[in-house]
Design brief:
Elements (H helix, E strand, L loop, with lengths): L1 H12 L4 E2 L4 E2 L4 H10 L6 H26 L8
Antiparallel strand pairs: 1-2
Length: about 80
């Protein structure tokens, strides 16, 4: 089951949109999951499937934000 969800997330994530000047990853929407499931049916309940995909997506976007914070230029120190 884990492999199926991870594979689904990888495929669904390819349709992700990016927004803003920074190109921030937009959340995956229910329609993208529905599109995936219409093409690749699953024995996993839709509720569980959605929950798992949204949790993976939340983790990905949180990691992206943290990386952006680490990569921000630091203000110069005053002498």
């Amino acid at each position: 089951m884990t492999a199926e969800i991870l594979q689904a997330y990888a495929i669904i994530g390819r349709s992700r949109q990016y927004v803003g000047m920074m190109g921030a990853p937009a959340p995956i929407g229910p329609a993208a999951i529905g599109d995936y499931l219409s093409r690749y049916p699953s024995a996993i309940s839709r509720e569980e499937f959605d929950s798992a995909i949204f949790a993976l997506d939340d983790d990905f976007r949180k990691s992206w934000e943290e990386q952006q914070e680490r990569d921000k230029p630091k203000p110069p120190k005053k002498p």
